[in-house]
Design brief:
The complex is a heterodimer of chains A (247) and B (391).
Chain A (H helix, E strand, L loop, with lengths): L7 E14 L2 E14 L3 E5 L6 H8 L7 E6 L2 E2 L5 H11 E4 L11 H12 L3 H14 L15 H14 L4 E5 L7 H16 L3 E6 L2 H4 L4 E6 L2 E4 L2 H11 L6
Chain B lengths: L2 H14 L1 H38 L5 E6 L10 H6 L6 E16 L2 E10 L3 H4 L4 E4 L4 H5 L4 E4 L1 H8 L8 E4 L2 E9 L13 E5 H7 L7 E6 L5 H15 L7 E5 H44 L1 H9 L4 H37 L8 H27 L3 H6 L2
Parallel strand pairs in B: 3-8, 5-7
Antiparallel strand pairs in B: 1-9, 1-10, 2-3, 2-6, 2-9, 4-7, 5-8, 6-7
Helix pairs in contact in B: 1-11, 2-9, 2-11, 2-12, 9-11, 9-12, 11-12
Classes of the chains: A alpha/beta (247), B alpha+beta (391).
Chain lengths: 247, 391
């Protein structure tokens, strides 16, 4: 189903991210290029410290690149104000975090409603959409339960429903199975595959090759350099960064 | 995000931490209750004083006192009555006053004696409850009659009816013809401790020729200053080159002076209580700062889902205002009850004015805004990346 329409969703060029750690400047991302089309199921895989979390923060508009360009759905993200970034996160990105990141004092449906609250939708409209999203992940029976009353797998499904509620063009999942046992992890991955089948664009960030293998396209992150299994991209990467490809 | 939604969210989180909310609003509550109780006390007493002063007809009264210099040390009664012709003057009451020993049976005491004309009743707004007043006939005939105050009656005559009895003033026999109504304490000593006799008789009794002071009742208090100027001009003509010989006292002025004293007292009490409100505000700020730290992750989640700075700021600000406002509201209720209890126990008048309630509430909500802004701003400025990582 991928590449069924070749509209570009994410376009990253020569992206560099540096942090200042005291006196020293640490470069986390080195001239990263990445293009993601609408309908892609992409996995970014790499060991811890490879820069994939930074990559995910930038893709998720939680952080801004030091230099280079990042276009999301045709909008250049670099240089946007905090408020504009918040609006983009609300509109374009559905986050699925490793630790679920649900608000413990709110019920499942209230958690799912949150992105819609910040979009300024009416009470009724929010309820309708949140209930619909929960139905998609098979949790309509548990709408009014608090996260503490739900199992890990159910909590992650609430988080997925929350990501879906705003109908964003992209789902961004950060180690979605990290806090789950193997079986529930598989269930969550199956759900994500199913969402991909339905046409959602998914960017999955993980350190686990097995999880990454579920995606139809895999890019590797190592020491702040991104490599992809497409021949032409690999050559260019190697020539530029001069490091061994990990495959 | 809509404001109504922000309110709902803030109240939910305020209610979620009931004990903490209750404790942090305690400072505000005590502060507001103190303000209400203290200010109601001083406001009550100032109303009491004002009522007394007003009952003496002070608002529309001018007093001229003549101390005298050189040859002329006083005005004659007729000269004094001329002041009634001045524009805006409604009534004139010339007075000769001094002290005399009053004796009835074996009881003897010193009292203020005022020699008056019949106009006294109207100008000074003192009426009698029993017998009759001093009349013009008493003045022309040099009658030795007296109208006595309520305290004089109870001191000298105890339970006896004084009207018709005879008392001795400095050894002279005076017949009590009337009893004045009780007026209570006033600025110039108690009106109940006075003995009133005809002006002409008083000149003899006190061996003092002429009028020493004049009370003038004016029609329009707004024109009081113009009238005073006319009176002063007339006095200046009578006592040339000696402005010290006379003095025009505006009762309204002295009332204002008194008012400013109670005002000072009120604002001092309010000031002390305001300090406790500020302390309460700091308490709220403290709690809000803890709350921000504790809820960093929540803020991160909200921000990652698209909450703007303004949304977070509003949420935390409303929480702070809700805590302080609620504390203020409960404080008002407790202060109201306390002021009533104080009024009953200490037997003073207390008054809780509507304006005070509104001010106290607005102030406590304002404290919430002022002390909530810093923590709310801290929350709003958190970077979502850092906030999400926080645990």
């Amino acid at each position: 189903m991928s590449h069924n329409d070749n509209e570009v969703l994410i376009e990253i060029e020569k992206l560099v991210k540096t942090y200042r750690m005291g006196q020293e400047t640490v470069q986390v991302l080195h001239d990263v290029d990445l293009t993601v089309n609408k309908g892609d199921f992409l996995a970014i895989v790499g060991p811890s410290g490879s820069g994939k979390s930074t990559m995910m923060n930038i893709i998720g508009c939680l952080d801004i690149p030091t230099s280079g360009s990042y276009k999301l759905d045709g909008v250049e993200v670099k240089g946007l104000s905090d408020n504009k970034l918040a609006a983009i996160r609300n509109d374009k990105i559905g986050f699925i975090f490793q630790g679920f990141q649900l608000l413990p004092k709110l019920t499942a449906i209230e958690n799912v409603e949150l992105p819609l609250v910040y979009r300024g939708l009416s009470n009724k409209e929010r309820r309708k959409r949140a209930a619909e999203a929960l139905r998609k992940v098979g949790l309509e029976e548990r709408m009014f339960h608090k996260p503490s009353e739900l199992s890990g797998g159910q909590q992650q499904r609430v988080a997925i429903a929350r990501a879906l509620a705003g109908e964003p063009p992209m789902l961004l999942a950060d180690e979605p199975t990290g806090a789950l046992d193997t079986r529930t992890g598989q269930e969550v991955l199956a759900l994500m595959e199913q969402l991909h089948q339905q046409g959602h664009t998914i960017v999955l960030i993980t350190h686990d090759m097995e999880v990454a293998a579920r995606a139809e396209r895999v890019v590797r992150m190592k020491d702040g350099v991104l490599t992809e299994d497409h021949a032409e991209r690999r050559e260019r990467r190697e020539a530029f960064a001069g490091i061994q490809d990990g495959i | 995000m809509k404001l109504s939604q922000a309110f709902r969210m803030a109240f939910k989180s305020v209610l979620a931490n009931k004990l903490r909310t209750a404790l942090s609003m305690l400072g505000m509550l005590i502060g507001v209750a103190t303000v209400i109780a203290l200010v109601s006390m001083s406001e009550g007493s100032s109303r009491q004083v004002q009522a007394q002063v007003e009952s003496l007809g002070a608002a529309n009264m001018l007093q001229v006192t003549i101390t005298g210099r050189g040859l002329t040390t006083s005005l004659s009664k007729d000269e004094a009555m001329e002041y009634g012709d001045i524009d805006n003057v409604e009534g004139v009451s010339p007075i000769v006053n001094g002290n005399a020993y009053a004796k009835y049976g074996t009881t003897s005491e010193s009292y203020t004696v005022e020699g008056i004309t019949p106009e006294y009743a109207d100008v000074r707004n003192v009426s009698f409850v029993e017998g009759r007043y001093i009349v013009d006939m008493d003045l022309t005939n040099y009658n030795k009659v007296a109208v006595i105050g309520a305290n004089v009656a109870s001191d000298l005559f105890d339970t006896e009816d004084p009207v018709g009895k005879t008392l001795l003033l400095n050894g002279n026999r005076y017949k009590v013809v009337g009893l004045l109504e009780t007026k209570g304490d006033s600025l110039n000593g108690s009106a109940d401790d006075k003995i009133l006799i005809p002006l002409t008789t008083a000149e003899r009794l006190l061996s003092s020729k002429g009028v020493k002071s004049i009370y003038l009742k004016i029609t329009d208090t707004d024109k009081s200053e113009a009238t005073q100027a006319l009176i002063t001009a007339k006095l200046a003509a009578k006592f040339p080159n000696s402005t010290n010989a006379y003095r025009v006292i505006d009762q309204q002025e002295s009332m204002e002076t008194l008012g400013s004293i109670t005002q000072t007292m009120t604002s001092m009490m309010a000031g002390i209580a305001a300090i406790s409100l500020v302390v309460g505000g700091i308490g709220i700020m403290n709690i809000m700062l803890v709350s921000v730290t504790e809820r960093t992750r929540e803020i991160g989640i909200r921000k990652s889902l698209g909450a703007k700075r303004r949304d977070i700021l509003t949420q935390f600000l409303i929480e702070a205002v809700a805590i302080s406002g609620l504390g203020g509201a409960i404080g008002i209720a407790i202060g109201y009850v306390a002021s009533h209890i104080i009024g009953v126990v200490m037997d003073t008048e207390t008054a809780v004015s509507f304006a005070m309630v509104v001010e106290a509430f607005a102030f406590s909500a304002g404290v919430g805004v002022i002390f909530g802004i810093f923590p709310a701003n801290k929350a709003a400025r958190l970077r979502p990346v850092d906030a999400l990582r926080h645990d």
